[in-house]
Amino acid sequence: MASGGLAYVGRTGEDYAVPFGNAVVMQSDDPRELLATHATLGTRPEVLRAIRADGRATAKRFAWPRVLDGYEAAWETAFALTSG
Q1: Within a domain: residue 16?
Q2: How many CA atoms lie within 13 A of 46 on its CB side?
Q3: Which residues fall within 8 angstroms of residue 45, CB to CB, at 6 or more apart?
Q4: What pLDDT, in 10s, does the model give residues 51-72?
Q5: What is the rounded distance in angstroms from the CA atom of residue 23 to the CA atom of residue 7?
Q6: What is the model's pTM?
Q7: Is residue 2 part of a domain?
Q8: CA geometry: angle at 69 spanning 66 and 75, to 5°?
Q9: What average pLDDT is seen over the chain?
Q10: What is the spatial distance between Cα 33 and Cα 68, in angstroms, rounded to a whole number?
């Protein structure tokens, strides 16, 4: 996503993925779904551009320094609750 590539992900465990928003989210394990999606995107360059742009924006929100800052705040809060 961060490099402007098109992310294809599964339907579970990818909380950040928005189907046809910032990624292509596969709903099944049927390879025909992947092929059909790929073919459709090949005829819709505007959709492909939009997914890539939203993917880059998503990747910025999930940059490690930002994620780690959030975890650090959570750990500090948990520590304060357990030690006080």
Answers
A1: yes
A2: 0
A3: none
A4: 999 999 999 988 888 788 888 8
A5: 5
A6: 0.74
A7: no
A8: 145
A9: 90
A10: 36
Contact 23, 1 (CB under 8 A): yes
Tokens for 68, please give them.
Answer: 């780690």
Give me the residues paired with residue 9 across strands: 25
Average pLDDT over residues 11-17: 83
The number of helices, as runs of H, and strands, as runs of E, in the chain is: 3, 2
Does residue 46 fall inside a structural domain?
yes
Specify if 1 maps to a domain.
no
CA of 42: how far to CAs of 12, 15, 37, 45, 80, in Å? Answer: 25, 26, 9, 6, 53
| Total number of domains in the chain | 1
Neighbours of 1 (CB within 10 A): 21
Enclosing domain of residue 32: 8-83
Note whether 44 and 62 are within 8 A (CB).
no
Task: Specify the length of the chain in residues.
Answer: 84
Q: Helix crossing, 31-43 with 45-61: angle to 10°? A: 110
